[in-house]
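Worked example 3 (structure in, sequence out).
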């Protein structure tokens, strides 16, 4: 019984998947639970697991983007007619699109036939896909029919870059120590077109929708961080763990969201949802863009737990190892660029939340304390609000509560 494998919808916002590499090749035996391929979604890189056993008879695309529900593989018995299976799968999809039936289950063929000569060859193309190389180097090598396996990378960490392919093209052949690469004085950075990742496509689409659909307005306050600095120093000296300023800000926001539930909300076309849970998304920068892991029930958690969970989520974000549940359900978002020395900025709202808080750096500047000028440690916070959900007064009350907690952090321990 043959099984037609389609590109699954691996996240709620996924419209297409990017096949990075196949771990099986045509002709390989497949067991239930085997990993067939690595697929990049709009949020993470995930393993495509087989729920069937048999022989991998067909691979639809060696690498690249494939729309959701498109046929990507067929698993069956040796000798089954792949062309017939593909035609039947195409007919089933067209029928489903016309609304006469649904094709949610994989097609099962009961009449094995000889495999025609048009079945794709069993040449293993996965090796080059798994070699560490820049997208431009991969494309150049493919166009020039130069196997990446014959090249030695001169980029960071042994990464194959454009110059390595040029060297081979100019007669260098397989790279060797006696044939040094063309020197690159700027750390292997390459100019030119860069193929969009699924994550970057989704970031562009979602933020464009947010910016031009949600009417944003912005509220900025200056916060005297002197007491928070002192509390953090005392806590880190006394305890066996380290609390960051971001952990303190998360806790302050979580408490403020419980006091101002209208801010802990999201917009829908027919209604506004005011959330009981406080789930705070924390923006984490990675090579391909931005991931927002979600700290669930942040209002119930002490700073020590918040600190540990954020470190864990951020670490796994950079390795693209988060589960889908850990990247959705945010009711509020925090974007912190303080570590980059940014004095002030505004952030675009991250749906479905109605607000996002932009956190800037802590800077020393003259401030007035008790009628005298002194050196203070000041941080700017800017709240971006969806005006369909949050009014100016509600947003102002919320951000001033956050400010009050940061300036008097002992309040958060009561």
């Amino acid at each position: 019984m043959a099984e037609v494998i389609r590109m699954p919808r691996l996240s709620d916002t996924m419209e297409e998947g990017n096949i990075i590499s196949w771990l099986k090749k045509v002709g390989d035996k497949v067991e239930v639970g085997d990993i067939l391929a690595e697929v990049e979604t709009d949020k993470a890189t995930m393993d495509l697991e087989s729920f069937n056993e048999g022989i991998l008879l067909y691979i639809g695309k060696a690498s690249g983007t494939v729309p959701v529900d498109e046929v990507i593989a067929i698993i069956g018995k040796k000798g089954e007619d792949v062309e017939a299976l593909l035609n039947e799968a195409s007919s089933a999809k067209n029928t489903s699109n016309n609304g006469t039936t649904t094709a949610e289950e994989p097609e099962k063929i009961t009449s094995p036939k000889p495999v025609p000569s048009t079945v794709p060859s069993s040449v293993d193309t996965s090796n080059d896909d798994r070699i560490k190389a820049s997208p431009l180097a991969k494309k150049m090598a493919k166009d020039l029919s130069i196997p990446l396996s014959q090249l030695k990378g001169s980029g960071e960490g042994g990464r194959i870059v454009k110059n390595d392919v040029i060297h081979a093209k100019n007669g260098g052949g397989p790279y060797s120590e006696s044939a040094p690469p063309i020197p690159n004085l700027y750390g292997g950075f390459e100019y030119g077109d860069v193929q969009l990742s699924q994550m970057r496509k989704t970031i562009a689409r979602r933020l464009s929708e947010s910016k031009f659909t949600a009417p944003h307005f912005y509220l900025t306050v200056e916060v005297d961080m002197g007491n928070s600095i002192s509390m953090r120093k005392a806590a880190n000296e006394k305890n066996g763990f380290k609390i960051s300023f971001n952990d303190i800000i998360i806790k302050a926001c979580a408490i403020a969201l419980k006091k101002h539930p209208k801010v802990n909300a999201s917009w829908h076309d027919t209604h506004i949802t005011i959330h009981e849970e406080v789930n705070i998304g924390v923006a984490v920068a990675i090579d391909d863009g931005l991931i927002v892991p979600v700290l669930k029930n942040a209002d119930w958690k002490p700073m020590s737990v918040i600190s540990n969970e954020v470190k864990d989520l951020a670490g796994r974000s950079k390795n693209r190892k988060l589960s889908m549940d850990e990247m959705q359900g945010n009711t509020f978002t925090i974007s912190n660029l303080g570590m980059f020395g940014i004095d002030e900025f505004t952030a675009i709202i991250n749906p479905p939340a109605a607000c996002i808080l932009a956190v800037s750096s802590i800077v020393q500047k003259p401030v007035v304390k008790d009628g005298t000028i002194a050196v203070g440690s000041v941080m700017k916070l800017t709240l971006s609000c969806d005006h369909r959900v949050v009014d100016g007064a509600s947003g102002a009350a919320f951000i001033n509560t956050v400010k009050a907690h940061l300036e008097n952090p002992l309040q958060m321990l009561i």
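Notes: The chain is about 30% helix and 25% strand. Confidence is low (pLDDT under 50) at residues 100-126, 175-179.
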